[in-house]
Amino acid sequence: MSNREVIVTAEEAKYRHNVTIGPHLLDVDEPQSAGGRDAGPTPYELLMAALGTCTAITVRMYADRHQWPLQGVQARLSLARDHADDCSQCAVSTPRVDRISLFISLEGDLTDEQRRRLLAVAARCPVHNSLAGPISIEIREER
Questions:
Q1: Are 21 and 41 in contact (CB under 8 A)?
Q2: Of 43, 63, 69, 71, which is the most buried if we count CB atoms within 10 A?
Q3: If pLDDT is split at 50, 70 and 90, which confidence band does 1 have?
């Protein structure tokens, strides 16, 4: 099991940040319409990516464990929030994502019962469980 530290570092560009996770490097930014350079996904897009990949991996692992003929999984996600708009309100309110739409496509010669069970398992992936329940985030200044 790997629980690598995630390090976020500001770039010279206004909203662009580098995210380092072990040997992996990601760029995160805001779209040009919000003052960024669109050099990478927004934080909300990363949140959806975490949920979508966790869901797809969980479904795949379950099907593999049961030796079901799942050929592919696709998760398509969207939300009706704008990260830049929500950030502009942080000093006066507590903006939060309150609804994510997640559509799953299952490919393969699966029975209706297998499809039903895979969708039920999708709703219980670890990231889904984390987002759906209370979570404590401790913020401290590091010097």
A1: no
A2: 63
A3: low
